[in-house]
TrEMBL record:
Pfam families: 7tm_1. This is G-protein coupled receptors family 1 profile domain-containing protein. Belongs to the G-protein coupled receptor 1 family. It comes from the Eukaryota. Residues 39-285 form the G-protein coupled receptors family 1 profile domain. It is found in: Membrane. InterPro entries: GPCR_Rhodpsn, GPCR_Rhodpsn_7TM, HCARs. GO terms for molecular function: G protein-coupled receptor activity. GO terms for cellular component: membrane. It is a multi-pass membrane protein. Keywords: G-protein coupled receptor, Membrane, Receptor, Transducer, Transmembrane, Transmembrane helix. The chain crosses the membrane at residues 22-47, 59-78, 98-122, 142-159, 184-202, 223-250.
Amino acid sequence: MNISDDHQDKDCDATHQEIYKFFAGVMILIFILALPLNGSVLHLFIFKLKFWKSNTNNVFLFNLVLADMLLLFCLPIKSYNFIMGERRSGNDVTCKAMLFMFLLNRGASIAFLAVTSIDRYFNVVHPGRKNLLRALKRSPQISVLIWLLLLPLTIPPMMKTFQCCKSLKNHDAAVDVVDSLTEVVFFTQILIPFSILVYCTARIVNRLRRKTVGDRTKLKRAVILVTTVMVVFSLCFLPCTIARMILLIVRVQDMSQQIQDQADVVFDGLLVLSYMDCLLDPLVYCFSSTKFKALYLSTYFPFLVQTAVRRADGSMRKSAQPLSCKRDSVVLDS
């Protein structure tokens, strides 16, 4: 092993091992909770909803849950690395495979969240206007195109040890170009979709405020959906983006090793937080369609539906009882 490889390994060591073991525990918990949740949603999309025949945006939501499922399989390996005191796998093949899965599926999750909001934006703000997204959303073309466009974006980070940030510390022009391209991919993959989400949310909310007559229920559901998407996005992806920016500043200015280690821990911790997306995305499915929520409950939790029906029947009977008594009294009085 040469000096540069030894330095690279040191950069990838977990300097605060107890904290990284806590991060590993969080990822294991996310995996345990999110795997059956996303698996049940995937089963529902395929066998109950038959998303490929649907006239709604179920095609986008299916790809979203698929991306979340694939990303979940990275968590056990990542947890093992953290427990062993490593920020990434020491095996180069495993490291690159993990990085590819992370970048591709996280990018797909972000993309399909954004596309879902754009689709709802066109349905609400421009309901009569024809657009390419509406024409293709019932077919797999646009979904396949999104996956294909994401593939080239995984190449620059895989050329370097992206997970052990050393970007922009070299004086080699060729290396600096790769580093810069890597960071551009990372930030644009988050900031551009977030800007789209903010725009769509603002326009839909403005549309709801200006609509004084007619059915406002559809508009309210759209506002709830895009707001939920933006909250999920802000909670899961923006913190690690800010932490990455701070980490780059610390590295470029060559601050003390202690500060660099602390910045590493904060970035890795907030990156773990981004995996919460796999748990929060089902909220998007529920707010996208009341039918989906009802179908999910009736399929996997039928006892909850039966309890709700019994309570509704009981309340209806109670409300009807005084009326019947009143009628009887009128008859008797007459």
